Amino acid sequence: MTEHLELRAYGKINLGLDVVRKREDGYHEVRMIMQTVGLYDRIIMERRNRPGIRVETNLPYVPSGEGNLAWRAAKLLTDEFELENGVYISIWKKIPVAGGMAGGSTDAAAVLVGMNRLFRLGLSKRALMERGVRLGADVPYCILRGTALSEGIGERLTPLPPAPDCCVLLAKPQISVSTKAVYGNLKVDELLPAQHPDISGMEKAIRDGSLDGVLERLGNVLETVTIPAHPEIGRIKEFMLQNGAAGALMSGSGPTVFGLFKGQEAAKAAFHALRQAEEGRLARQVYLTRLFRPGGNDRREGRSR
After folding, report:
1. Of the residues 12, 93, 172, 237, which is catalytic?
2. Is pTM, for the whole model, over 0.90?
3. pLDDT per position as a tens digit, 171-224
4. Catalytic residue among 18, 41, 107, 138
5. I want to staple 256 with a disulfide (CB 3.0 to 4.6 A). Which of 19, 172, 230, 231 is the partner?
6. Which domains does the chain have, with CATH numbers?
């Protein structure tokens, strides 16, 4: 009997992103507050009677073979457990590609979870996270989800209480950004103290349930690299703030920008205004969502049929 599974691969934003230092091995040590949002890619997985991994997406420029992190996630578990059956994976992408929202990593995380269920491998969430780090630093977090403090190269995770709820406006300009290039151009030693976000203060604000405390501490050191190279990111931030956002920030290495709104009506008005701004040329992709709430956004996830 053929088995099917439908999963939601949720995107993330960084409420705070600090780079502490560049290590001798070339990696950057970070301290980040990671936050899952309600925007997701839809993934359908089907167990096949014949061997092989097949991936299809709705976007022609997204690779379907080894270049796709979801394919590599399926291959990792197929090889480890010497699975004789194959799997078909359909990915319907909504999370902006190369947008700083961990779109590839969250797809890979969902496929690890899906493979574990479809093939009844019996792996715990912690075991899946340990395997996920082999694929990328963000994959373990995308398995964990929610609100978390991320340290090291992103692999050391401390779950936090859910961040105070608010509306989230997401906008990606008509550019893509290389994460490797952004980190490569970051001069950690030249950053001023004021350019480092207060990650510890934001962690406390989250534990205290203070949305104002979170908003006061939004910060991302990678903006010092990405915004000078792509001023449209700064223009989107300013547009959101002028249209009612209580705070706005670039996510990850960019170029996606998020705005946090205390009220739904203001968020909706800004959403429509941004979609019409410069006849849609200011931002190619615009979405309105909320922060991910465990047990809320994902109630229908993981359905078999």
Report:
1. 12
2. yes
3. 999 888 888 899 989 988 888 888 999 999 999 999 999 999 999 999 999 999
4. 138
5. 172
6. 3-160 (3.30.230.10), 167-290 (3.30.70.890)
